[in-house]
């Protein structure tokens, strides 16, 4: 069956929103690698305000899921996002960050075996072994070229090496990967109990953690100061009427990152409701690969032959786990057999 317009638009905006989001994230990280908490806070605040107006309607709409059931989900979601973004503060390059986050299937399998006592077939074990090997290879290769990327205004003398802090960053990414996998399992439990309410979940998972940012308020204010003092750029709209207003470049990138993050999340939610899981897996995997290529080519991030080998293992492992090849082949056969029942004999002869 052909994809509907809503699904096609969802795919389009996954690429536009998610790919551009990664671009703006890397632009921010190039200016201030330690801005992870500022980025996370800005994203949560924007999505919470949007949900307050359009989903909750200023808390006049009663939630379908009990607030007490959101508590664990919110804690997991908040922790995973903080760890993912804060990892940039520990000398983690963007390509390695993207490859590491592509290991979600590996984490999901570990959680499935440990918590749900699930059993998997040989194909799934093989695919996860490929993903694990790819991530380990990329990590080991990256460990040989670790550089301190701390913003010049925040550099401090420390007795620990750059490699030590890089290892802390890898630890944060590992924790985020496992927490995200557990969050997926917990989400399934909630959805089975209450049904799926993606817009509501999006709002509450971004609104409820906002007080948690008070813990890192000092860090957020510090990096907002760096953003405010970044190179100014002229705003074209005001320049057109003779007014010149300079806007800090990093704040502009931050605003674009927040908006594209919202577009990305919304588009993925559309895909999950309009498309089969196979389609979602293909689109998201391809999007990650495009983002990785852009990061390597445009931002000239170092990427060796071993990095490419690790990347191929990760992405082909993902495709193997989702059984994409067999499902595409079966869909093609079903379509051909379907045509055979309705086509006339002359046409069938012509096709042969």
TrEMBL record:
- From the Swiss-Prot or TrEMBL record, state where the protein is found: Endomembrane system
- A Pfam family annotated for this UniProt entry: UAA
UniProt entry tagged with the keyword Repeat: no
Q: Does the keyword Heme apply?
A: no
* Molecular-function annotations in GO: UDP-N-acetylglucosamine transmembrane transporter activity; UDP-xylose transmembrane transporter activity
TM region(s), chain numbering: 7-29, 35-55, 67-87, 99-116, 125-143, 163-186, 207-230, 250-271, 278-299, 305-326
Topological category with respect to the lipid bilayer:
Multi-pass membrane protein
Name a single GO cellular component: Golgi membrane
Q: Which UniProt keywords apply?
A: Membrane, Sugar transport, Transmembrane, Transmembrane helix, Transport
The family assignment reads: Belongs to the nucleotide-sugar transporter family. SLC35B subfamily.
> What name has this protein been given in UniProt?
UDP-xylose and UDP-N-acetylglucosamine transporter
Please tell me the species this chain comes from.
Drosophila gunungcola
């Amino acid at each position: 069956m052909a994809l509907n317009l809503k699904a096609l638009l969802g795919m389009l905006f996954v690429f536009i929103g998610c790919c551009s989001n990664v671009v703006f994230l890397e632009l921010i990280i190039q200016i201030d690698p330690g801005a992870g908490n500022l980025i996370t806070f800005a994203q949560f605040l924007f999505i919470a305000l949007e949900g307050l107006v359009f989903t909750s309607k200023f808390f006049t709409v009663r939630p379908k899921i009990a607030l007490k059931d959101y508590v664990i989900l919110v804690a997991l979601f908040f922790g995973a996002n903080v760890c993912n973004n804060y990892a940039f503060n520990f000398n983690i390059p963007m390509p390695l960050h993207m490859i590491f986050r592509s290991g979600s299937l590996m984490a999901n399998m570990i959680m499935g075996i440990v918590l749900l006592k699930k059993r998997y077939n040989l194909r799934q074990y093989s695919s996860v072994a490929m993903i694990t090997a790819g991530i380990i290879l990329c990590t080991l290769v990256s460990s040989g070229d670790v550089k301190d990327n701390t913003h010049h205004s925040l550099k401090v003398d420390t007795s620990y090496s750059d490699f030590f802090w890089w290892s802390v960053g890898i630890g944060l990414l590992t924790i985020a990967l496992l927490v995200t996998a557990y969050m997926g399992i917990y989400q399934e439990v909630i959805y089975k109990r209450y049904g799926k309410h993606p817009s509501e979940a999006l709002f509450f998972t971004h609104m409820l953690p906002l007080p948690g940012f008070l813990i890192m308020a000092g860090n957020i204010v510090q990096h907002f100061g760096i953003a405010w003092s970044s190179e100014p750029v002229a705003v074209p709209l005001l320049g057109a009427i003779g007014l010149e207003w300079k806007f800090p470049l990093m704040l502009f990138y931050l605003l674009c990152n927040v908006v594209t993050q919202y577009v990305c999340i919304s588009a993925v939610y559309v895909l999950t409701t309009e498309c089969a899981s196979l389609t979602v897996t293909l689109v998201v995997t391809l999007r990650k690969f495009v983002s990785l290529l852009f990061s390597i080519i445009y931002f000239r991030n170092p990427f060796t032959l071993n990095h490419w080998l690790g990347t191929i293992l990760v992405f082909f492992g993902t495709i193997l786990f989702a059984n994409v090849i067999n499902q595409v082949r079966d869909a093609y056969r079903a379509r051909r057999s379907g045509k055979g029942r309705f086509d006339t004999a002359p046409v069938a002869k012509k096709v042969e």
